[in-house]
Amino acid sequence: MSEADQTPTTTRRTLLCCGAAALAGGSALTLSGCDSSGGSSKGQSKAATTPVDLGDASAVPVGGGKVYADQRIVVTQPSAGQYKAFSARCTHAGCLVDQVKNNLIQCPCHGSRFNIADGTVADGPAPSPLPSYQVAVAGGKLTVTPS
């Protein structure tokens, strides 16, 4: 055999396998936004325990809630005048919940759902309730104190 005959050739199977490996690597990078530890990511400071002003209480509908993504807080109003506040980080993989719908706080990453009244898990894979925070309403304004 000559040296030219021993040069490896790229087969369709090799291309497909390499493409699948590249896609899997890209998926891993995409999912890295979810922190499996549920804690703060490296380089981020721990959550503040000072009160956070969230604006008008009227922004939180009765029987629903509002996600304050920048503050990583979700506030709900299970019944008129009763406000609840929770961490907006899902206890499954640390993703941020993105909406409150049908009396449930919803995580877009893996389908976890939490009850608006107490943050308990309504549908997994989340292993535990959302941590609750103190919430106060004064002069029609919401103030939440992360614990």
Describe this structure in words.
The chain has 147 residues and is an alpha+beta fold. It is 14% helix and 32% strand. It has a six-stranded antiparallel beta sheet, with no helix packed on it. A four-stranded antiparallel beta sheet has the order 5-6-7-8, with no helix packed on it. The longest helix is centred in the first third of the chain and has 20 residues, at 12-31.
Features:
four-stranded antiparallel β-sheet; alpha+beta; 10 strands; 1 helix; 14% helix; single chain
Write a short abstract of this structure.
The protein is α+β, with helices and mostly antiparallel strands.
Distance N terminus to C terminus?
Answer: 74 Å
Rg, alpha carbons: 23 Å
Stretches where pLDDT is under 50 for at least 5 consecutive residues are 13-46
| Main sheet strand line-up | 1-10-9-4-3-2
How many H/I helical runs?
Answer: 1
Write the layout of secondary structure elements.
Blueprint: H1 12-31, E1 52-56, E2 64-68, E3 73-79, E4 82-87, E5 99-101, E6 104-106, E7 113-115, E8 121-123, E9 132-138, E10 141-145
